[in-house]
Design brief:
Length: 552
């Protein structure tokens, strides 16, 4: 670790790698002596834009970052909605609106009645349902795409500013998107947490500094974060690593423990970490959020979900993860920049989390992107001495205007923008993926004889069936598997495989209706077809609706 965190004294030091900008070689400024004035041709003209506040100006580099993130926004805002836990979140949001309270036990699944529920995403669920009611599905597409694009902008902007290179920003953004594209396409509260995580990275991967406002802004954001998604613990991890990294940097440079322990910036960072950790408690569950989030992955039901499984080289995501690891190692090997302890610690910790679980790629991808982008570009510059440092262009009002126009175009060409500007609402069938059981649910809405008791519904269809189907239909499970009793979830996993005792399981749970996915549960379909106790009431290319001839 010390080899990575120390200053690389034996490597060539070039202007491309300096934190501060250096004057361009060969250019000298000379001023006349005494009271002489600069000749008229060399006088700096007075420009009206100089009086414009700096915060109203943007650079060309920011425009490139906007183009990159805007491209992702347009792509994701036009993606169809897949039958995922999106619909479960909408159902929970609708229940919160209906009751006016955040439930402390599972409110939707009859088999989970009384099971404690610490809902760290209640505010996201409420917001999603309000958007859906006000503007429809295009608003859900756009808001999710905006969160994903915002996280990409923060990652690429951080790399561009640290590396003083647009190329570094673009490279960081591409690494981030390639590693995390699967999760960016899934609409869930996690996207709100990812945006805030990338914002915290902009603090944690920079030298610790900031005024008094940081002690108000960051705790408020963490308090909000704890009500949007449980990933706030990863934000706290970034802050903790940044403090530890600061202590490590000072120790390696000063070789003095008293100097290290007296570093004011590190202690300010530690104070901020404590304030943010306390601010997290401003949620309906209070202290319960910590054990809930930390123990979530240990839930035995979660182990059956592929996205919580360890990464392997047999999967595409595992192969891209391995490529990203090799790329960051190469970047750290060839860089002439000083490598900070914090970025190495964060890279190792989030990399280990990602190897442990596919879902953790969310938190490794931004770090890998920034480290690879900044240090790889610096290393290439160091290997090619003739490459000059090119800072992002000076901020100017013209670039701000260009960015505003670009944002307008980006929003206007999305389905949501078209709906707002032209009043054209796309048909729901065009917004939903082909995997959504649209026709099956249309049949269920018109079916007058929904039998009593529970119904077998594939977990990935359950949320959509509950959201769009008849209220009297009660599925056995949904995709919030951590809220299911372990035995119930095990029985469901057995049932979808079409076991020999499938009829016994149906009887045990009092299921008089079965909505079966023909492609995913072919064995179960075959066995129910062959049973004299069941009949098919409806069938299409996706699913079949079976009903008992004699309800139990």
């Amino acid at each position: 670790m010390s080899a990575l965190c120390r200053s690389t004294e034996n490597k060539p030091t070039m202007s491309a790698t300096l934190e501060e900008s250096a004057p361009i070689a060969g250019v000298q400024e000379s001023l006349p002596e005494g009271n002489a004035t600069v000749p008229a041709p060399f006088e700096r003209p007075t420009i009206v834009a100089d009086s414009v506040p700096r915060w109203l100006k943007a650079s060309a580099g920011m425009t490139w970052m906007l183009v990159l993130s805007g491209s992702l926004l347009v792509y994701l805002a036009g993606r169809p909605l897949w039958p995922t836990d999106l619909w479960d979140h909408l159902n929970y949001g609708a229940r919160i609106l209906q009751t006016g309270t955040v439930p402390d036990t599972e409110p939707l699944m009859a088999v989970s009645a009384g099971v404690r529920m610490v809902n760290t995403a209640w505010l996201s669920q409420l917001g999603m349902e309000l958007l859906n009611r006000r503007w429809g599905l295009t608003a859900l597409q756009f808001s999710a795409a905006l969160l994903a694009a915002g996280s990409l902008f923060l990652v690429s902007r951080l790399a561009m500013l640290r590396g003083q290179s647009v190329v570094a920003g673009v490279l960081a953004g591409l690494v981030y998107v390639r590693l995390n594209l699967h999760e960016l396409q899934v609409i869930r509260p996690q996207l709100a947490g990812l945006l805030l995580y990338c914002a915290v990275l902009n603090y944690g991967l920079q030298p610790l500094r900031g005024g008094r406002w940081q002690f108000l802004i960051w705790p408020v954001l963490f308090g909000l974060w704890a009500n949007l998604h449980g990933s706030f613990v990863l934000g706290l991890l970034v802050l903790a690593v940044s403090v530890a990294g600061r202590f490590g940097d000072v120790l390696f440079r000063s070789r003095s423990l008293p100097v290290t322990l007296g570093d004011a910036e590190a202690w300010r960072g530690l104070l901020l970490l404590q304030l943010c950790a306390v601010a997290v408690l401003a949620n309906p569950a209070g202290l319960l959020v910590y054990p809930e989030v930390l123990q979530f992955s240990a839930n035995p039901n979660v182990e059956s979900m592929f996205e919580w499984a360890p990464l392997t080289l047999r999967s595409v995501q595992g192969q891209w993860y391995a490529a990203a690891v090799l790329l960051t190692m190469l970047a750290l090997k060839i860089t002439p920049r000083r490598i900070r302890c914090g970025e190495v610690l964060l890279l190792v910790l989030t990399g280990a989390l990602a190897a442990w679980s596919v879902r953790m790629l969310n938190w490794f991808a931004p770090v890998a992107g920034v480290v690879a982008g900044v240090h790889l570009v610096a290393g290439v510059r160091g290997l090619r001495a003739r490459v000059q440092v090119q800072d992002p262009s000076e901020p100017a009002v013209i670039w701000s205007l260009a960015n505003a126009g670009l944002l307008w175009i980006i929003v206007a060409i999305t389905p949501f923008g078209t709906q707002l500007l032209r009043g054209v609402v796309p048909e729901e069938s065009r917004l939903l993926s082909p995997a959504t059981p649209i026709r099956t649910v249309e049949f269920l809405r018109g079916y007058q004889a929904i039998p009593r008791g529970l119904a077998f519904v594939p977990a990935e269809w359950s949320g959509y069936v509950m959201n769009r189907g008849p209220q009297s239909l009660r599925p056995l499970v949904n995709l919030h598997v951590h809220l299911m009793p372990e035995e119930v979830w095990k029985d469901y996993l057995r049932l979808i495989r079409g076991p020999a005792d499938w009829q016994t399981l149906m009887d045990e749970y009092g299921m008089n209706m079965a909505i079966v996915n023909k492609a995913e549960q072919p064995v179960l379909v075959k066995k129910i077809r062959e049973s004299a106790d069941w009949k098919a009431e409806y069938e299409d290319r996706q699913g079949i609706v079976f009903v008992r001839k004699r309800p139990v």
